[in-house]
Amino acid sequence: MTTKHGIVDTRHILFIAAGAFHMTKPSDLIPELQGRFPLRVELSALTKADFVKILTQPKNALITQYTELLKTEGVTLDFTPAAIDRLAELATEVNSRSENIGARRLHTIMELLLEEVSFHAPEISGQTISITPGYVDEKLKDVVQDQDLSRYIL
């Protein structure tokens, strides 16, 4: 790293600064040093509303990804808003009961929800599959209800 005082070798900065910055916040340091210090952050659990946003708002949200993926096989997915709420509710519930892995839980839930449709997509080409709260409950009921199973699968 080059500074106005010359080149500084930062390879050993953690050793040198191990106790030197105990009274300083990392944000007070120059950006080149901020990334060198291990930080510990405590996050609050995601809520149902957070999961709904994650499922719907990003440009490449999971629902968009699965919809486009199955569209390549000629299958149209139609997620109702209530079904998205139910998916978010299930993700929140399972995260609170077992290991809280945050939004990564949604990948597994979506995979299990659409496993059968994905497998049979070539056979059901041209159809529209409506994803409703009932459909979500039907496909995920066994895994969500069985806490031992949900710990390992979800």
Query: Main beta sheet, described?
Result: 2 strands, antiparallel
Give the percentage of residues in beta strands: 5-15%
- Stretches where pLDDT is under 50 for at least 5 consecutive residues are none
Number of helices: 9
Query: What order do the helices and strands follow?
Result: EEHHHHEHHHEHH
Average predicted confidence as pLDDT: 82
Radius of gyration: 23 Å
Number of strands: 4
- Give the helix proportion (percent range): 40-55%
Structural class: mainly alpha
Shape: elongated
Strand order of the largest sheet: 1-2
Q: N- to C-terminal separation?
A: 44 Å
Which helices and strands appear, and what pairs or packs with what?
Blueprint: E1 2-3, E2 6-7, H1 13-16, H2 31-34, H3 48-56, H4 62-71, E3 76-79, H5 81-97, H6 104-113, H7 115-120, E4 128-131, H8 133-145, H9 147-153
Parallel strand pairs: 3-4
Antiparallel strand pairs: 1-2
Task: Give the gist of this structure.
The protein has 154 residues and is mostly helical. Helix content is 52%, strand content 8%.
What does it look like?
With 154 residues, this protein is mainly α. It contains 9 helices and 4 strands, in the order ββααααβαααβαα. The strands form 2 sheets. The chain has a two-stranded antiparallel sheet. A hairpin with a 2-residue loop joins β1 and β2.
Key features of this structure:
154 residues; mainly alpha; two-stranded antiparallel sheet; two-stranded parallel sheet; 52% helix; elongated
